[in-house]
Structures
1.
Amino acid sequence: MPIDNAIYDRLGSGWWDESNPLNALNGSFTPARFTYFRDVLAQLGRNPAGLQAVDVGCGGGFLAEEFARLGCRVLGVDPSEVSIRTAQQHATAYGLKIGYAVNAGERLALKDESVDIAYCCDVLEHVTDLDQVIAETARVLKPGGVYLFDTINRTRASKLFFIKLLQEWRLTRMVDTGVHSWTMFIKPTELEEILRRHGLRLREVVGLGPRAGLASLGWNFVRVRLGRLSFGDASRLMDLGRVRRVDLSYLGYATKLSRRSGSGESRQG
Ligand SMILES: C[S@@+](CC[C@H](N)C(=O)[O-])C[C@H]1O[C@@H](n2cnc3c(N)ncnc32)[C@H](O)[C@@H]1O
């Protein structure tokens, strides 16, 4: 099934609505991802206050709002106009100052070496040109800048979970379209190689997955299907978080190599 990225325009006005399938990315997903990213910045000794961050593929702004609350100056970009409008309206309603722009990750309208933090969450497995997205991210990051990400591994387990269970099987699927294409999932070694080619050193990869048991997961997906559970509740009950296995999703970070050291190491990180 080819990937259907048009879904973000069709459903993108409802990112913050718990009955909208896109809201499944909030629930336990936003806290799981954000907690890890915040911890990485702390480990690296980076005080986020005042740092310039770009959220590549920001969708409805779940993570942009978290980074803004940390004190970052955030720019969220996404090719989906509807999503950007929704994100902007939500931030305004909550008194958050976040810049938003319609822009694909393959060609960022940002100056070279202008951002301290770039992050890309559940986006890399959606983009048309992965190499170009990473190249652009590397271009706009300052030397020593931090790249944070999460994406989906290309394994038998991810095919079963993300494709069969969540997208194909009639009783359990969360959406009736191809939000994911298994062939676009990315192995950590492949990502590491692309990052390296563009001057980003992969520093860590950790597993991200549901901590709820398989039976409860399956049953909750059926309840969503029957209209008895919202996507927001299903996401919370999934209890996404750090897990040992990396064969479903994984989180990680890289740092941009310092020009001055030339040694492949960031002086700051
Ligand atoms: C699964 S959503 C993730 C949204 C958000 N990052 C989050 O985690 O809540 C994937 C997002 O990637 C965006 N996207 C698709 N192709 C893209 C591209 N080439 N560059 C940047 N974003 C893209 C979609 O419009 C969509 O908003």
2.
Amino acid sequence: MIKLIHAADLHLDSPFAGLRPEQARQRRDEQRALLTRLADECNTRDCQLLLLAGDLFDGAHVYRDTVEALIEALGACRARVFIAPGNHDWLSPGSPYRTADWPENVHIFTSETIECVTLPELGCRVYGAGFCREHPGALLEGFSAEDDGLLNLMVLHGDPTGGAEYNPVTKQQIAASGLDYLALGHIHRGGQLREGRTLCAWPGCMMGRGFDECGEKGVYCVSLEPGRCEAERVPMGARQYEILEVRVGEDPLASILAALPEDATRDIYRIILTGESEGIDRAALEGALAGRFDALELIDRTQPPLSLWAAAEEDSLKGRFLAGLKARYEQAAPEDRETILLAARYGLSIFEGREVPPL
Ligand SMILES: [Mn+2]
């Protein structure tokens, strides 16, 4: 039986442009630290192969520290390593894939024509190709693997979800490939499908970089023998982005706390508040939640309780005042609504002879 780890879309040296420079540098350090984790995972599980399906680097600018960290981690793997460069790390003339000194156990596919390395000691062959430009066309079209009893694997960057821009991989091509395992990269949310005798999988990115890459990220651990192939998700323990929608009750803080997992201190949260409220005291909530997250973004989408507008129909000065604000509230952009609610509450307090709450 062959055991392998399949990872993709590491996007090392991402700029993390939305973060402060200090935080961005920390994230790039964390990306490099994941390389050690990847090598450990391979060695602990006694994997014979590590397949890296492209977008290892985020772009043409790669720090030397990063190349060194990657070389060190891959060199520490007892597995044979196969890399198929993708659209972000395509094989430009100055690419580290061409210029760096890679360890002996690492094979980089440097042609857009599918090539093959036979590993008789493992009873398999590993096919692969690499992007030599950003948009290489359909690399798998017309391919079929040798059929001679060896297990056939392929590592490739490409899109199995219908996108046409970056090496589209269709179900027909997968079925016709005759491969046992097709290790893809490109789609950042992991998934797998079976077509014909082939299991095709893409692990997604190894670490989320924004709210468009939420949830737990990781790699696949694949076990493979003639007639059987399974891919199991292995989380890599990186910091996570999460979006949580919380319907607030009487006490918004209590509602949020009840919705949180036990420990989110390393994670980056966007909490969207819904339901009814007379206005969310953002500063107080942020204060009360400080330290529970690496970073928190609060979005208030609550609606005012009906009673605030109850007198808007009245034929009185109070009624006209509320009706005017209510109309503006309904037209307002979400970020302006809090101010309008505040005006309504203050105005109502004055009309009703109550003490005006402090600003
Ligand atoms: Mn990618």
